[in-house]
Please model this.
Amino acid sequence: MHKKYVITKVGCEQVVVNLTERDARVINNFIEWACLEDDYIIEPIDEYVAEDWGGQE
Model:
């Protein structure tokens, strides 16, 4: 089942996406493995928060 997640590039931008819990874990594991210069955070959010915030699928 898909749910809304917000992916944040710390200090910059945020994007709302539809992911499964497994997808979110895979992306998070990749970010940790890749040792990217920027910090990213993936957090689940409630559907209504995404709509109020202007998030789209």
